[in-house]
Amino acid sequence: MNRISPTDLSFLLLERANRPNHMAAYTIFEKPEGQGSTFGPRLFDAYRRSQAAKPFNQKLKWLGKDVAAWETVEPDMQYHIRHIAVPAPGSMQQFHETVSFLNTGLLDRGQPLWECYVIDGIEHSRIAVMIKVHHSLIDGEGGLRAMRNFLSDSPDDMTLAGPWTSFDSGRKPRRTESTSRTERLHGALSGLGNLPGDVIGVGSDVADLGAQALNLKARKASLPFAARRTLFNNTPKSAARAYANVDLPFADVKAIAKTTETSVNDVVMTVVDDALHHYLVEHQAPTDVPLVAFMPMSLRDKSGGGGGNQVSAELIPMGSPEAGLLDRLKEINAATMRAKDKGRSMQTTSRQVYALILLGSLTMADAVPWLGKVPSANLVISNMKGPSEQLYLAGAPMVAFQGLPIVPPGAGLNVTFASIGTELCIAIGAAPEAVREPFRLAELIEQAFRSLQIAAGTASPTTRKTSAP
Question: Topology of domain 182-387+405-467, per CATH?
Answer without folding.
Answer: Chloramphenicol Acetyltransferase (3.30.559)
